[in-house]
Amino acid sequence: MTPNEYEVIASRIVFVGRVTSMRSDQVAMPGGVSSQRDVVELPGAVGIVALDDKGRVLLVRQYRHPVQRRLWEIPAGLLDSPVESAARAAERELFEEGHLRAAEWFTLVDTLTSPGMSDETVRIFLARDLTEIPVSERHVGVHEEAEMEMAWVPLDSAVERCFSGELENGITVAGLMAAQLAITRGLAGLRACTAPWRARKRST
């Protein structure tokens, strides 16, 4: 039996917003029929597990409107510039949200956050050998980031908070679990921060 190719027969843009867009595709299905598939388009994002020399990870807390709650998360941000590499975006987000620079970077995992409805892909990095940014040089957040809180949490404790349900952000859970495994393996097998990223539409 020849696998179906799921060819897109027709496609139209339904909505274009500040960050997200939505398109509606008519897709050829097995059996000679077609079906509508709506896709939320996003530019992709990066997340950073910043691990200090005491074995603690940085968590930030900010308001997330879709769930209308403040969530504790790892630093993260959108890939909203076509000329900025993923590695550079991670450096920028760590600078802006964590007031930190890192001398050592690895790729932890690449994730498709909700492939049944969205093309969003997120690369999660491990950042080590951290240096704090002087107060006079720090980024000043706006909107939700103006009230952002920060906390340093032992990695083991952060992972336990994932298991207990206290940490719910999917990028955060994936990043913390991957970081704990990476540390137990002595970072063996981790990719470079500039490693190819299969799902990203632009180069890393």
Topology:
Blueprint: E1 8-16, E2 21-29, E3 33-41, E4 45-50, E5 56-64, E6 69-73, E7 76-78, H1 86-98, E8 100-112, E9 121-132, E10 149-154, H2 155-164, H3 170-184, E11 191-192
Parallel strand pairs: 4-9
Antiparallel strand pairs: 1-2, 2-3, 4-7, 5-6, 5-10, 8-9, 8-11
Helix pairs in contact: 2-3
Structural descriptors:
204 residues, 5-stranded mixed beta sheet, 3 helices, globular, alpha+beta, 3-stranded antiparallel beta sheet, single chain
Low-confidence stretches: none
**Category from helices, strands and their pairing:** alpha+beta
Which percent band covers the strand fraction? 35-45%
- Portion of residues in helices? 10-25%
The coarse silhouette is globular
Secondary-structure element order, as H and E? EEEEEEEHEEEHHE
Entry summary:
19% of the residues lie in helices and 41% in strands. The protein has helices spanning 86-98, 155-164, 170-184, and strands at 8-16, 21-29, 33-41, 45-50, 56-64, 69-73, 76-78, 100-112, 121-132, 149-154, 191-192. The strands form 3 sheets. A 5-stranded mixed sheet has the order 7-4-9-8-11, with helices on both faces.
